[in-house]
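hey m, so remember when u said the C-alpha cells were messed up on ur end? i reran from scratch. heres the input so u can diff it against urs
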Amino acid sequence: MNEPDTPAPTETAPRRASIGARRNPAAETAILAAARGLLAEKGYAGFSIDEVARRAGAGKPTIYRWWPSKADLFIAVYAADKAAAIAVPDTGSLAADLAGYTAALWRFWRETPSGAAFRALLAEAQASEQAMTALREKFLPLRLADLGCVFTRAAGRGEIAAADAESLLQLYIGFHWVHLLTERIDEDAALIDRMARLIVRAGRPDTAAPPSR
C-alpha cells in the first residue's frame, strides 16, 4: 500500500506574531535581516515584500503597515547599514570632513549590497510616484540631517556663511549623485579633495553672494 505523499519542507521561517501598530522588536529585526539577505542575493531588482515576508516568517500586512512600499523597506535597510558603516566626521575642518565622508560613502556604495542597490532606487523613483515620495520625504530628510550638522558646525567656525549652508549641502549631494548615476565612484583622492575645497571656497563669508532683494 502506497504511503500518501508527504509535503516537502519549506524554508519559510515560523510565522511571527504582530502586536498591532506598535512594532514587535523581534519581528522588525527578522524582517530587516531577511531584507538585507535578499538584497545581497538578488539586488534591488529581485527585492520584493512577498519574498521578505516569506523569509522572515512575517505577514505582509505587518510589513506594509510599517513600510508602505518596497522603497520604504529598502530605505530602512540602507539607513541602518550606512549608519553602521560610516560615522559623520568632525575634524574641525569642513574640507577634511567632506573629503573623509565622501571617500567612506563611495566605498559603502561600491562594497555593500544596500549601497550597490541605491542607484536602482533613484532610477525607480523616476517612474514610480510611491518610490519618489519615499525618496523625497523619507530618504532625503535623513541624509540632510546627517550632513547638515557638518555644514552647521562649519558655519559656526566661520568657514562658510550660515545663510549658504543649506545650498552648499545640496551642491555637495548633487556631486555625489552625478558620480553615482554615471558609475564614477572609484576613490579619487585628488578629485574628492578638489570638490571639498571648492565647496569651502564657494561658501566663504567674504565671497558669498549678497541676499536677493
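this time it looks ok to me. The chain has two domains: 10-66, 77-203. if urs says something different then somethings off w ur setup not the seq
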